[in-house]
Amino acid sequence: MVGGGEGAFIGAVHRMAAALDGDYELVCGAFSSDAGRNERSAAALGLAPARAYSTLDVLLAAEAALPESQRMQVLAIVTPNHLHAPAAIAALDAGFHVMSEKPMALDLAEALAIEAAVIRSGKLYGLAFTYSGYPLIEEARVRVARGDLGPIRLVQVEYSQGWLSLPVDRDGQKQAEWRTDPARAGLGGCLGDIGTHAFQLAEHVSGLAVEQLSADLTTHVPGRRLDDDVAALLRFAGGARGVLRASQIAAGDENGLRLRVHGEKGGLDWSQMEPNTLTLRWLDRPAEIVRAGGPGLDALTTARLRTPAGHPEGYIEAFANLYRSFGRAVRVGAAIPPARGAADWFPNIVDGLRTMTFVETMIANSVGDTKWSSLAETLDQRRASLAK
After folding, report:
1. Which residues touch 257 (CB under 8 Å, ≥6 apart)?
2. Cβ pair 43, 15 in contact under 8 A
3. What are the transmembrane regions (predicted)?
């Protein structure tokens, strides 16, 4: 693990998720650039002092020198965003698989550099788009894919938080401080932090790619350097339309991620704060409430469940589903990740590039005069500029 030392929220989440099924053992880390914090973190986690490394470069060199049976296999990247790309590229080039926090990079150029490293290394690259690991998100995806709702017409996704409603980023709150710093967070604030989750979930469940968007990015808190409230109209392949809202200044809201997908015959509704329930509503019959662990679930859904019906499962279990799938791909020596819809699918370089293309297209559209911007054109232009 790189990053995730004492006081870091997401590092502990990754460790819990990786440990849940007994598939992983934490063997080494560079947890902090502060030597004392790094040593204390390693000691608290029960690591041998010799494998608490001062930097990622030292870690990679030392681990690569160990016999194959002893060295690490996967690097978990849980640093602030500005270190995601250099850490991923270095680890991939050193011959290690990577599981990274999102967003994958500061911008699309860095994302494409990671893609190149994945291709030349032949190693696996996973991304922690946690919400796609929920069992009932898989049930929703399956029902859309098999045509239960009919042709999809409308996708609505919102992710609403209130924790940045006040200028806590200027009051010493470390999580807020780096997430609102362009040098460490990247091009988008709320957009990169939670807007990417909403976008990835909308495409993942609908099975449709966003072709064009029209964006509105706002910074409500005076002096804040990145957006804290975003909205977009979406045009999907095949003619479906969509709306995306993401906000971190919705005072009083906690973690309000909600997805609704509507087809010709009916619609579905899922909320992260009530993740064990999927509501289906129909034109010609009463609504259905589908519950985690209950009857009628697809086999791909039940494979992601861990407890009987009525026993709540949530964020850590969903996260663990991604780690479990990633670990299985490592164990069988997979050179490419499983396809979407496969039993052991996990978010990967494809999702990363889509979300970073989304971020860059949103920002360009919001400051330009074009009503609609194409994601494919954004990606093509960036590839062309880097090829010069």
Report:
1. 131, 157, 158, 159, 160, 194, 197, 198, 201, 271, 272, 273
2. no
3. none
Chain region(s) in the chain for CATH 3.40.50.720 = 2-130
Angle of helix 9-19 versus helix 315-331 axis, rounded to 10: 60
| DSSP code string of 84-152 | HHHHHHHHHHTT-EEEE-SS-SSSHHHHHHHHHHHHHH---EEE--GGGGSHHHHHHHHHHHTTTT-SE
Residue 318 scores a pLDDT above 90 = yes
Give start-end residues of each CATH 3.30.360.10 domain in the chain. Answer: 135-307+349-362
165 exposed, middle or buried (CB, 10 Å; 0-12, 13-18, 19+)? middle
Tens digits of residue pLDDT in 235-279: 999 999 999 999 999 999 999 999 999 999 999 999 999 999 999
Question: What are the residues whose beta carbons fall under 8 Å from the beta carbon of 271, sequence distance 6 or more?
Answer: 256, 257, 258, 259, 277
How far is the C-alpha of 81 from the C-alpha of 387, rounded, in Å?
25
Cα–Cα distance, 172 to 167 (Å, whole number): 10
How many C-beta neighbours within 10 Å does residue 310 have? Answer: 10
* Three-class DSSP category at 8: coil
Question: Which candidate, 232, 243, 282, 215, places its Cα nearest to that of 155?
Answer: 243
Burial letters 316-327, b for 16+ CB under 10 A, else e: ebbbbbbbbbbb
Tokens coding 323:
């780690």
Residue 161 structure tokens: 């938080």
Any idea which fold 135-307+349-362 has? Dihydrodipicolinate Reductase; domain 2 (3.30.360)
Q: How far apart, in whole angstroms, are the C-alpha atoms of residue 163 and residue 276? A: 25
In the numeric block, the tokens 């500029």 are attached to: 385
Task: Give, in words, the CATH class of 2-130.
Answer: alpha beta
Q: For the chain, what's the residue count? A: 388
pLDDT tens digits, one per residue of 140-163: 999 999 999 999 999 999 999 999
Give the predicted TM-score (pTM) of the model.
Answer: 0.97
Q: How far apart are CA 14 and CA 320, in angstroms?
A: 8
